[in-house]
Amino acid sequence: MPRTRPNHPPSLVVMTTFAESPADILGRLAELRAADAPTHGGHVLSYVYDSGLSELDELAASAIRAVQPVNGLDPTTFTSVAALEREVIGFARELLNGDQDVVGTVTTGGTESCLLAVKTARDLWRAQHPDAVGRPRLLAPVTVHAAFQKAAHYFELDLELVPVRSDGTVDAGALVDRLGDDVALVVVSAPSYPFATLDPVGAVAAVCAEREIALHVDACIGGLVLPFWHVADGSELPAWDFRVPGVTSMSADLHKFGYAPKGASVLLQRGRDRQRAQFFATTRWPGYPVVNSTLLGSKSAGPLAAAWAITRALGRDGFAHLAASCERATRSLVEAIDAIEGLRVLGEPVGPLFAVATDESVAPERRVDPHHWADAVRELGWLLQQQPGYVQADRSVLPNTTHLTITPVTESALPELIPALIAGADAVRGVPRIDASGLVAALPLDGVGELDSETAWAVLQGFGIGGSSGLPPKQAPLLALIEALPAPIAERLLIELIARLAEPA
């Protein structure tokens, strides 16, 4: 007879002692978590997406616990995985106006969704151009998420980033003019993360459809909130989703404005044959047949189950209600910041996020550097995200900014947040932006070539970063260094800094 194993077999070996007691282990975890930035209450305006509904957090935790031992690798063994994914994809497809031809996959996050969209486009381009010489191109505005730089690097595409205007918007013609038979994928954002600009999806998609070039809409941050968003005059946004012919794929993160725990995202593809090119399968080894719809094999079903539970609990109306709160809070904050002398909101942001820059129309002694401002606001208990200035390929410069992402809990925090933003600006008004070029010039960076770990660490310590002091208490100096250093050196130093944080003592 076949051997069977019950779900909860009786313990054959009783452990009488643990290396550490559960109470001590959880106490240590609580101690470590106490040093983290707060994930609830709206004090961190990036990275976390707080619905403000404790019931959703409890529901998500219960859903995760229910599938804790489940392996998402094999939906034929754990059939709940396929059922959960099917329902989540159905919800996302309806929200993004996809028809029955749109199918999809739940991934472990926005980066994986973006990677898979690029991998799919590359493979299909190769199949359609078997005699092509050279690498295909990935074409996008410079504001496209950095995940697409990673995808181009991993999957060997030439990345062409098109400069944007000073307000972060991109001219559709600037993208269209660069189309060619070697373009495997065009990516536009809904909206872009750095400046919250809604790229010209319709205009670019029309030409891509005519020329049979794939177009991906990265709606990782906007996909579950823009369906309910309005422009300033109260009208609807221009079409940006599967209503637009020529949009071949879309990504939308469930762990952002879907309020699910990290990491859960969806990648939707127009056409089953297109989506099947996303898969990896092999029977060419002596083990079990491997069929993966994503980059991972074994994976937790927890985030999927949590996302599924939240979509069912909220439904379309619940998401609309939370989006309305985000919209009200965003408009209040934009108005409040525009009223702060020395600061300005960059462009016309779309969605619950925006960037703040220096208002250079006022006298220098009245200006507020956004990085100094963020440091001052941090001292008051609110964490804003600093973004370095950027020199584009045409040598035009995008300003250094501070980014804010708005969540439903922000609305109730406005009576405390807005005074903190004003006080932070008052504290640093007239303080000039840090110029790190002199410090960089004084360091022996010429001829360093490929920095090894020890050299990179020594350079960091020369900047006063690392060692026992760790990160500097103020981030503006670090951002100034990033701006002043050549990109390859800055990137290598950041790798060293982050890697050292996780090294055993």
Could you characterize what this model shows?
The protein is an alpha/beta fold. It is 39% helix and 13% strand. Among the domains are: 66-310, Aspartate Aminotransferase, domain 2 (3-Layer(aba) Sandwich); 437-501, no CATH class. The chain has helices at 22-34, 54-66, 79-95, 110-128, 147-155, 172-176, 201-211, 272-276, 302-338, 370-379, 410-428, 437-442, 453-462, 476-484, 487-501, and strands at 102-107, 137-141, 158-162, 183-189, 215-218, 249-253, 265-270, 280-282, 290-292, 343-345, 353-358, 385-387, 390-391, 397-398, 401-405. The chain has a seven-stranded mixed beta sheet with strand order 1-7-6-5-4-2-3, with helices on both faces. Strand 8 (280-282) and strand 9 form a beta hairpin. It is globular, with a radius of gyration of 24 Å. The termini are far apart. The mean pLDDT is 92.
The fold-level CATH name of the domain at 66-310 is: Aspartate Aminotransferase, domain 2
The total strand number stands at: 15
- Strand content is 5-15%
Provide the structure class: alpha/beta
> Overall pLDDT, averaged?
92
- The largest sheet has its strands arranged as 1-7-6-5-4-2-3
Shape: globular
CATH architectural type of the domain at 66-310: 3-Layer(aba) Sandwich
Helicity range of the residues?
Answer: 25-40%
What is the chain-wise order of helices and strands?
HHHEHEHEHEHEEEHEEHEEHEEEEHHHHH
Radius of gyration: 24 Å
Helix segment tally: 15
Q: What about the largest sheet?
A: 7 strands, mixed
Question: How far is the first residue's CA from the last residue's CA?
Answer: 53 Å
CATH superfamily of the domain at 66-310: Type I PLP-dependent aspartate aminotransferase-like (Major domain)
**What is the name of the CATH class of the domain at 66-310?**
Alpha Beta
* Unreliable runs: none
